[in-house]
Specification:
359 residues; alpha+beta; six-stranded antiparallel sheet; 11 helices; elongated
Length: 359
């Protein structure tokens, strides 16, 4: 009996690899692999509809759109190619949000959007809106995210831009969800480990092994979220890319400046041309336009220097503001990771104690 318990404790169970190709190979010898017809022993394979998957992957998906100005939400259907053209996003970024694939958590700052894949929340955040992917497996989480985002937009008490508010709600949802799972795992694991220390049983050993597998998977997910936040905090360029509202305002101001400069140039050219026509003395037609061009060029250069100096100061302040926001949730997720690390150490100590008892 002691030898059997020791073997169960020390040797982890063999977990079969997921996927239809593995299931097809594990069939009876008379069976047929993936996509094959039925054979002897009832080992029929599983056919994969490749064309259906391609059509589904590029088809229209259901999103919940939250307006940045009003907070109003609506259900919309947008195709993947349309999103790529509209937000200038590569296909690999949208692939992170595809429910057909299982990707770890990620936060990507792009020129016109922030792509977030944080546990059950998959969204695209811009300066004007947030598009949250609707998933049947996470319908409740999506609803809670939209409700919380609307509440914060209505009760906005600070000057945070919309993209930071939407990102903060997503981070809070992910960190709260992972911490709740860690607390649930602790509540189940510690009493079981104490019971194993007092009395060794096969049933409790199996339960402990399953809990350890859950712990490893949960730790990997928590570690990934922590790494994403830490990577953002360590790169000023990545944080600067996430200032979508500020970039939009600068772009609009730049367009207005260009239009104003064009108007000034037209007025200068018109007045010089009128002066040339009105003067009786011969004036070189090439003398006036170069002077106006030089004046316009100097004016544009001075304005660009002033704007760049002003933007560098504001971006430095804003980057610090975003870094403080990310640091708050880094502390939260790091605390969750420390709890899981302590639980793993307790499991290892319990295993060592049981091994000593079985020797």
């Amino acid at each position: 009996m002691d030898q059997d318990i020791k073997q169960r404790l020390l040797l982890p169970p063999r977990v079969a690899a997921n996927g239809p190709h593995r299931r097809g190979k594990s069939a009876a010898p008379g069976g047929v692999g993936v996509g094959g017809g039925g054979g002897g022993g009832g080992g029929g394979g599983m056919a994969i509809d490749v064309h259906g998957l391609k059509k589904r992957g590029g088809g229209r998906r259901s999103w919940v759109r939250v307006d940045a100005a009003t907070g109003a939400s609506e259900a919309v259907e947008v195709a993947k190619p349309a999103l790529m053209r509209r937000l200038d996003l590569p296909a690999r970024d949208l692939r992170l949000l595809d429910p057909l694939f299982v990707y770890p958590s990620a936060i990507l700052g792009r020129e016109r959007a922030v792509v977030c894949n944080l546990e059950r929340i998959r969204c695209i955040i811009t300066a004007d809106e947030a598009l949250v992917l609707r998933d049947q497996d996470a319908e409740g989480a999506v609803r809670m995210y939209v409700d919380e985002l609307q509440r914060r937009l209505v009760d906005r008490a600070d000057d945070l831009p919309f993209e930071f508010i939407a990102l903060e709600v997503a981070l809070e949802a992910a960190c709260s969800f992972l911490d709740a799972q860690a607390v649930e795992l602790e509540a189940e694991a510690y009493p079981l480990l104490d019971e194993l220390t007092a009395k060794i049983s096969t049933l409790d050993l199996e339960r402990a092994r399953r809990l350890k597998s859950k712990l490893v998977a949960l730790t990997r997910r928590v570690q990934k979220v922590r790494d994403e936040i830490e990577q953002l905090m360590d790169d000023d360029g990545d944080m600067a890319e996430m200032y979508l509202t500020e970039k939009k305002m600068r772009m609009e101001a730049s367009l207005l400046d260009q239009q104003g400069l064009q108007g000034i140039g037209n007025n200068v050219f018109g007045s010089s041309f009128s002066a040339q026509v009105s003067l009786s003395a011969p004036v070189s037609p090439a003398s006036s336009p170069p002077a106006s061009w030089r004046l316009e060029k100097q004016f544009s250069f001075a304005r660009s220097r002033h704007d760049s100096f002003k933007s560098s100061e504001s971006s430095q302040y804003n980057i610090e503001e975003l870094e403080m926001l990310l640091e708050a949730y880094f502390v939260v997720i790091d605390y969750t990771l420390n709890k899981l690390t302590s639980l793993k150490e307790y499991i290892d100590d319990t295993e060592d104690f049981i091994n000593i008892q079985l020797v």
